[in-house]
């Protein structure tokens, strides 16, 4: 189960001069199990900070986050994180990068390899299992990062602009591949993006944050089936509506 409950969440960062920067303020949100959520908003509105708090990488100043009814007090393998920068170990092959989390959990080597091979195959990289990250394209490296996160079998997959550094064609392909993986794994996904087009294409609901301090301005439900047609008039209207909110 991967339901997420956020109650009255706030985050302030102290500055050297004794003042504080309020990044988030009074964020309250309920995310259902297996839901695909996209977070959008102006630059600096706290999207990544919110994601890091859900991951347990940041401590909230006020409020709370609970996953499956358990308060988030620190990192947990049940909340997988995928970053824009891939964060792969350059000295480890694809198979070893994907198996890393399982190794840290103490799984036996053959079990680590078997599980890693399963997720490498799922992201379509079986023929590159013995390659090093420098031998892969950006899109392929991001697929390895996703496979590594999935190998830990998280209930919630947190994605911080994972396709932001990719060219437009690769980005569109990765969006389609991510939706296919999500339909297969049935995990809850919380996805930060600066691309409104990407959010409308991917999400069940789009959470629009205000300028700093970030709080929820509006929640937009996307009722259409997938795959979605980006040239559709309704698609364009929702995109326009969200853009108006964040500009």
Key structural traits:
four-stranded antiparallel β-sheet; 7 helices; 247 residues; alpha/beta; 36% helix; six-stranded mixed β-sheet
Structure notes:
It is built from seven helices and ten strands. It is an alpha/beta fold and 247 residues long. The chain has a six-stranded mixed beta sheet with strand order 6-7-8-3-9-10, sandwiched between helices. Strands 2-1-4-5 form a four-stranded antiparallel beta sheet, with helices on one face. Strand 1 (4-14) and strand 2 form a beta hairpin. It starts with a strand and ends with a helix.
Structure, briefly:
The chain is an alpha/beta fold.
Unreliable stretches covering 5 or more consecutive residues: none
Rg result: 18 Å
The averaged pLDDT comes out at 93
Number of helices: 7
Q: Indicate the structural class.
A: alpha/beta
Q: Report the helical percentage.
A: 25-40%
**Largest beta sheet: strand ordering:** 6-7-8-3-9-10
Strand and helix layout:
Elements: E1 4-14, E2 20-31, E3 36-40, H1 47-55, E4 62-67, E5 70-71, E6 79-82, H2 94-105, H3 109-122, H4 138-151, E7 156-160, H5 168-185, E8 188-192, H6 196-202, E9 205-209, E10 216-221, H7 233-246
Parallel strand pairs: 3-8, 3-9, 6-7, 7-8
Antiparallel strand pairs: 1-2, 1-4, 4-5, 9-10
Helix pairs in contact: 2-3, 2-4, 3-4, 6-7
């Amino acid at each position: 189960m991967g339901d997420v409950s956020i109650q009255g969440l706030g985050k302030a960062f102290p500055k050297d001069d004794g003042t504080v920067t309020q990044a988030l303020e009074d964020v309250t949100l309920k995310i259902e199990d297996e839901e695909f959520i996209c977070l959008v908003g102006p630059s600096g509105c706290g999207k990544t900070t919110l994601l890091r708090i859900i991951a347990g990488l940041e401590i909230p100043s006020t409020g709370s986050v609970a996953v499956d009814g358990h308060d988030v007090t620190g990192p947990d393998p049940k909340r997988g994180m995928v970053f824009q920068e891939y964060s792969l170990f350059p000295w480890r092959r694809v198979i070893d990068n994907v198996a890393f989390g399982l190794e840290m959990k103490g799984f036996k080597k053959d079990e680590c390899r078997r599980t890693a091979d399963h997720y490498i195959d799922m992201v379509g990289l079986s023929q590159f299992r013995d390659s090093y990250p420098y031998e892969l394209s950006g899109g392929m490296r991001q697929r390895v990062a996703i496979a590594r996160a999935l190998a830990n079998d998280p209930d919630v997959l947190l994605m911080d602009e994972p396709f932001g550094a990719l060219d437009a064609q690769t980005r569109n392909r990765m969006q389609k591949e991510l939706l296919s993986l999500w339909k297969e794994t049935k995990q809850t996904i919380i996805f930060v993006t600066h691309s409104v087009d990407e959010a409308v294409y991917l999400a069940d609901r789009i959470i629009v944050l205000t300028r700093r301090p970030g709080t929820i301005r509006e929640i937009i439900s996307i009722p259409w089936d997938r795959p979605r047609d980006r040239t559709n008039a309704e698609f364009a209207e929702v995109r326009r509506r969200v853009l108006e909110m964040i500009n």
